Amino acid sequence: MLNMSSIYCDAPENWGFGFQDIASPTMYGLVELHDHVSFYLVLILVVVSWFLVRGVYGSHAISYARNSHGHTIEFLWTLAPALILGAIALPSFRLLYLMDEIIEPQVTIKAIGNQWYWSYEYSDYAEPLSFDSFLVDGPLRQLNVDNYLVLPVDTSIRLLVTSSDVIHDFAVPSLGLKLDAVPGRLNSSGIIISRPGVFYGQCSELCGYLHGFMPIGIKVVSTENYLNWLATL
């Protein structure tokens, strides 16, 4: 059997620089938007650097000082940034609204932030299931938990996030999840996880002196294994 951890990067790595591997349509959209924006950043850097070098060291460096203004260049450097901002804003708003959509959820999970652990509730079943998830020792520094949140793959899931004390944040990079857990308020997000695996995250809102010790562990399995897991509880 293949070791999934050797194929995918679903947890932080030493000297890691890029994103963790994509495991949901939401994260795919975020990475695509990042690449889209990076293209314009590199384009702007190249163009501005070219004008800077040419203006300082080029053969026309002195003649620029004699020009008080130029209607054409002023029009261009006003129009070009507006077009670039529009090209960035349109896909950004599209992704923002898509991330808020919850399409006919088949499973509803409630995550509750506590100082300093997470509690999970499955409320779709005749006998609601709930348990706590604490940090334990393991191979991954400050990421291993005693009870994993188990979810089915390729299933529309509604995630509800709240807090019992102070503000926390439920963040799992591979899934593109980052939801504030606010006392007295429910934040929701829809997610479809596209492959099985074990995914890790952490609280991403400073919540006290043990803020760095409340990891998130999510185990994604096939629908059959998910139903078998429910039957054993």
Automatic annotation (TrEMBL):
Coiled-coil spans in chain: none
Catalytic reaction annotation: 4 Fe(II)-[cytochrome c] + O2 + 8 H(+)(in) = 4 Fe(III)-[cytochrome c] + 2 H2O + 4 H(+)(out)
Record has Ligase as a keyword: no
GO terms under biological process: ATP synthesis coupled electron transport
GO molecular function: copper ion binding; cytochrome-c oxidase activity; oxidoreductase activity
Gene Ontology CC entries for this record: mitochondrial inner membrane
Transmembrane intervals: 37-57, 77-99
Listed cofactors: Cu cation
Biological role: Component of the cytochrome c oxidase, the last enzyme in the mitochondrial electron transport chain which drives oxidative phosphorylation. The respiratory chain contains 3 multisubunit complexes succinate dehydrogenase (complex II, CII), ubiquinol-cytochrome c oxidoreductase (cytochrome b-c1 complex, complex III, CIII) and cytochrome c oxidase (complex IV, CIV), that cooperate to transfer electrons derived from NADH and succinate to molecular oxygen, creating an electrochemical gradient over the inner membrane that drives transmembrane transport and the ATP synthase.
Protein name: Cytochrome c oxidase subunit 2
Lineage: Eukaryota, Fungi, Fungi incertae sedis, Chytridiomycota, Chytridiomycota incertae sedis
